[in-house]
Each structure stands twice: as structure tokens, then as C-alpha cells.
Write the C-alpha cells for this entry.
Amino acid sequence: MSTFKIGILGPGSIACKVSDTLAQMKDFQVYAVASRSKERAKAFGNRYHCEKIYDTYEALASDQDVDLIYIATPHSHHYEQTMLCLNADKPCLVEKAFSYNRKTAGEMIALSEQKHLFLGEACWSRYNPMYHMLKDILIEKRLLGRLHSITVSMGYDVKGIERLTNPELAGGALLDIGLYPLGFVTYLLGSQPVRILSSCARFETGVDAQETMILLYPDGINAHIFATALYGTERTAYIYGENGFIKVNEFSCPTSIEYYSNANELMNRIVPSAKQISGYEYEFLSARTAIEQGRCEPKEMPHAETLALMEHMDKLRANWGIRYPFE
Ligand SMILES: NC(=O)c1ccc[n+]([C@@H]2O[C@H](COP(=O)([O-])OP(=O)(O)OC[C@H]3O[C@@H](n4cnc5c(N)ncnc54)[C@H](OP(=O)(O)O)[C@@H]3O)[C@@H](O)[C@H]2O)c1
């Protein structure tokens, strides 16, 4: 198999974690990096032995040898940078949140489909085989029987990170953290709840610091979500049904899935494959497969789902009165 060459756009915190993983993947290469800063590009390029080191994003987008550009910058910049790369005929994998609103996300997807170029959201959870196992157990095999509710929380103490609090960078807990539990619920229960109730608390900058969301589905099924950028939480998801409940530990990249009876007895436990590197590998394997098969969206996270998630986040922000300065 030939080597699949990744170009990194925005060599920051997540780009390093992802590149640590790419460096351990067979037939993948951290081929090029682009930063607005020559020093940052060089430091990253040397660390990951990149063949090409660029100090403009345009130069990376024009590189004829890159197979996929991974966009890892703040949410505010994904739109502009994705359009740049797609217009240069480059497939892209874009970090979550895919963009800052539904309108720009729609334009990005429309351009990828018009040019028939791969474009995917790097929402790593969705590519994790444990997610597919979970859906199979719950929806296909109906282990819990009829589902009743989901409770899921996710919190990190990231209040000191500017990207999270600055409205100019499309900050806020929802786009950074809340989209994981929201995406978890819509993945399992469907992206069209009957109603969403919600409330948020804000940072002094005006963007959301934490939120509670209740998603109501037909037949009384409901989901309770809590997300915060103020402090750490257990990051566990509970799915309740008529035959007991399932607990998903570290639900965004599960460390285990446990099935308990209605009497609270542990009945079964599934853990990740021993071959898993970090969990970041799956989105790149999926992107490569899609590109090689000539598809412009990932099988695990279709464009329609990215758009549905963006639309929910638009409506939530509208309810809270949060609008980014550039919208
Ligand atoms: N999947 C996950 O587990 C995960 C985890 C963390 C973050 N993320 C996502 O990854 C993306 C990047 O997050 P990060 O924490 O890695 O970001 P970061 O380290 O703060 O920044 C990454 C890069 O973005 C550019 N950048 C930073 N601040 C900027 C600004 N004020 N204006 C313009 N560009 C700026 C810089 O690129 P230059 O070097 O070119 O200037 C920087 O190298 C976000 O979408 C985030 O939600 C995902």
C-alpha cells in the first residue's frame, strides 16, 4: 500500500496529539505542516520529520503531493481555511466543531460535493469502533429492550484557554465540549428530537461556559446533557432501557462499555481493541478509505449529520442570545 500523506494546517495542541498517533500508523505520514508562524512550522516539522514545512496555508494547499489536509485551528477559522483548501482541490478533514454555524458548514459541504472532493468532520468519537458496537447492541440487538433515557455529562477545566472564552474565535463550551454529548445522543436516538429545552451560564466574555440540554423524543424517550468548560466531570454516559442500563466510561473515546441488569449487577463489559493507538487513528483510516473509494463524505459521519448538529447548535445559541461578532 502506498503512503498516505497528511498535511497539517495549524500545528497546535490537537495537531500534536493526532500526529503522535499518525506517526505510529502504518502507511500514513505526517508529510507537511503549515503555520502562520515560521518558527511554529519549523518546530512542528522537525518534531514530526515533515518533508515540507510551510509558513503560509496557501503554500500547503498548493502542494501537489498532499493526500489530505487536516485542519486543526479554532472554530472561527475552519470555514475560510477549508474553502481555501477545497478551492485548491485538496480533500480535508476538519476538526470539530466543523464550523461556527450551519450556513458556513453548508457552503463548505456544497463546495466539496460540487468538486467531488472528500470533506469530513474530525469528530473522533464517531469513528470509534466502540460506538458502532454500542449502536449495534442497543438498536440492532435491542439488549436493553425499549430505550427510556440517556444521561451524559462532559466537563473539562479549560476556562483559562483563550480559544474557549473568546467570541472572536467562536469560543464557548457548546462548540468545544457540548457537541460531544449532543452528538452521542443524536447518534443513538436520531438527529430529530421533538423538542430541545436548554439553559446556559456564560463567561464574562459573553459566550457559554456551561449548559444543560434536555432532548425530548417520541414516546417519552428523553436525554439529559450537561457540558461545562469550568471544571472536570466524570464524562460518563448512561443509557437506560427496560432490561437495565449501559454505562459508557469516558464516552467520547470509550475506555469501557458496561451492561448492568435492573438489579444493578454487572452483566458484561467490553473494552477497546488492544491494537488501538489513541482513538485518533480511526478518523484518518475512514478518510483514506472514502478518498480511495471516491466518496466525498465519511461513512461514519455523513454530511447530513454534521449539518444537523450545526443546526442544533445554531438554535441553542439563538435561544441563549449568543451570536459571534462575525456572524
Ligand atoms: N478531537 C479532539 O479531541 C480535540 C481536542 C482539542 C481540540 N480539538 C479541536 O481542534 C481545533 C484546534 O484546537 P487546539 O486546542 O489544538 O487549538 P490551538 O492549539 O489553540 O491552536 C491550533 C492552531 O490554530 C491557530 N490559531 C490559534 N489561535 C489562533 C487565533 N487567535 N487566530 C487564528 N489562528 C489561531 C494556530 O495556527 P498557526 O500556528 O498557523 O498560527 C495554532 O497553531 C479546534 O477545532 C478544537 O475544537 C479537538
The chain has ten helices and 14 strands.
